[in-house]
Amino acid sequence: MNRILISPSILASDFSKLGEEAVKCEAAGADMLHIDVMDGHFVPNITLGPPVIRSLRPRTKLPFDVHLMISDPIRCVGAFADAGADMITFHTEATNDPGACIDAILQKGCKAGLALKPATPAEAALPYLDKLSMVLVMTVEPGFGGQRFMADMLPKIRAVRRACDAVDPDMYIQVDGGITPETLPAAHTAGADVFVAGSYVFRAEDTSRAIRRLRGEDA
Which member of 31, 36, 39, 193 is catalytic? Predict the structure, then answer.
């Protein structure tokens, strides 16, 4: 798997300039825009909701990679899909019926992703792979940006990649947390191909160069 797709996490952006930040990511060559949604319940932080996504949608053509870190995610699928989400990823730990949530996402015309917290084994995603477009392996504890990459998640990434290849070799494996030019290569070698980068991209003086460096195109 040679592709490296970059999905900047808008959680690390300047919230007073969200539209400008989205435009900047597109101009810099990002592949999608990662939008973290937190409810203060499933994780201890609170971020943004469908109205913000709806206001951002006209500003960029980037696919919206919406990561729901919320309890009972099925109740909000329709609102986020209608607001402009292209991919909706939710946590298997946040629902008693992941299959129903995946079906709800697909019925709204979005792609479905399933996220695994660090303590959740790769096996939790296996029953649902035939309906998923992406599995997200968290490489930090979800809830806050700026954390260090957890290298002990690499075996899980490899296990997820093997399982996905048996079902659909084109399925995305995303990693989220602590992604920099130093940590990305190991995750990529393990089988990940979509990389969420927040602080590294949005705190860079040159956004385009930051994204190129993540891809290994600019030393």
Answer: 36
